[in-house]
Specification:
By secondary structure, the protein is α/β, with parallel strands linked by helices. The chain folds into two domains: 210 residues, Carbamate kinase (3-Layer(aba) Sandwich); 58 residues, no CATH class. Helix content is 38%, strand content 21%. The chain binds aspartic acid and magnesium ion.
Length: 355
């Protein structure tokens, strides 16, 4: 089931790290037993927001420290593992003027979220007797200087990721903090949800067979399952359609995570259920995405020419057909559900993908 002999990258999102940490560690241990694995982690959920606030106001470092110490205690880790990073964070906040720009300073501060969570993950694996190498992400992921939303320089990353490849080949679990890159001697970040992007870049660079994107939902759904109870997972989504859906508001994946050939498998950390593969194949099932635009919500059906009984704006984005509608916030839920009904009916099907 867990692909014996395969090389995989497993990425764990912020809510998995915070709420399903032990399952994430156990899952990684299983992957390591069966083959080669590199892990990309997000910051504990809520920490990136707290760090952005810290960069803005100078306040909140105490709360961030406490949250991590509590987390360590709950998971049987020594809280002092975080002390050096927390000291460094405090020093960085105090030396704001030494950064070339506010954006560079902000990215530097925000980078500590993933550094802290990766430290915890590496420690938890080590305590199970698994050999680990923890990487500095700015040494591996080379980016441009677009702080806050940096783009990866793949060629440079390919050569810099050789030590990660070697580590997994030698039987170590490579742990790489997500979301963070390096430009010259500065830290950059890859945009919100950027750990998906780190994972797919790294997967491509180290020649992984697949990248597992693990979160609190088991895949890409026909609509946001939190708002549409009858939404169901889509088993195969092409890279193009995943990218367009993501640009139009689908939150399951960072849009740039689809730029590489390596297949992405989306699964749930809690029970290791996988429901979507993003790659060459497409099930053809439309995906409803929504995003806020000005005071309204834009609802888009990605991968459809028209919806019977609904008048929308039809266009093509990167070769993918889209129908868009604008709705008020108060009618968003009702609209999403009736649109979903019109497209798909109420069948609640699942197509589990076994890996
Ligand atoms: N921690 C970052 C965020 O909250 C990146 C990520 O979670 O992928 O956006
Ligand atoms: Mg995500």
């Amino acid at each position: 089931m867990l692909c014996p002999g395969r090389r995989l990258v497993a990425k764990f999102g912020g809510s998995s790290m915070r709420r399903n940490f032990d399952e994430a560690v156990s899952f990684t241990a299983r992957l390591w037993d069966a083959g080669e694995v590199a892990v990309v982690v997000s910051a504990l959920k809520g920490v990136t927001d707290a760090l952005l606030m810290l960069a803005e106001t100078g306040d909140g470092i105490g709360g961030i420290g406490e949250l991590h110490r509590d987390f360590a205690l709950r998971h049987g880790l020594d809280p002092s593992i975080f002390s050096p990073l927390l000291r460094e964070l405090r020093k960085s906040v105090e030396s704001r003027d030494s950064f070339p720009s506010l954006r560079a300073f902000r990215d530097h501060v925000v980078s500590f979220g993933e550094l802290l969570s990766a430290r915890a993950f590496a420690e938890a694996l080590s305590s199970r007797g698994i050999p680990v190498v923890l990487f500095d992400p700015w040494e591996v992921i080379a980016t441009d200087g677009n702080f806050g939303n940096a783009g990866v320089n793949f060629r440079e990353t390919l050569s810099r990721s050789a030590p990660v490849r070697e580590a997994v080949e030698e039987g170590f679990v490579a742990v790489v903090p997500g979301f963070i890159g390096g430009h010259l001697d500065l830290r950059t970040t890859l945009g919100r949800n950027g750990s998906d992007y780190t994972a797919s870049v790294l997967g491509e660079a180290i020649g992984a067979d697949a990248v597992l994107i693990m979160g609190d939902v088991d895949g890409i759904y026909t609509a946001d399952p939190r708002r549409v109870p009858f939404a169901r997972p889509v088993p195969f989504v092409s890279r193009e359609r995943a990218r367009v859906a993501s640009l139009l508001g689908m939150r399951a994946l960072h849009p740039r995570a689809t730029e590489f050939e390596v297949p992405l498998l989306l699964g749930r950390t809690d029970d290791w259920a996988f429901s979507t593969v993003v790659g060459d194949t497409d099930s053809g099932t439309p995906i409803i995405a929504h995003t806020r635009e000005g005071g309204l919500f834009r609802v888009s059906v990605v991968g459809a020419d028209a919806v019977h009984g609904y008048e929308g704006e039809t266009f093509e984005l990167d070769g993918v057909r889209v129908v868009s509608f604008w709705v008020e916030r108060s009618s968003l839920g009702g609209f999403l559900n009736s649109l979903h009904w019109a497209l798909m009916g109420t069948r609640k099907l699942a197509f589990p993908v076994v890996v």
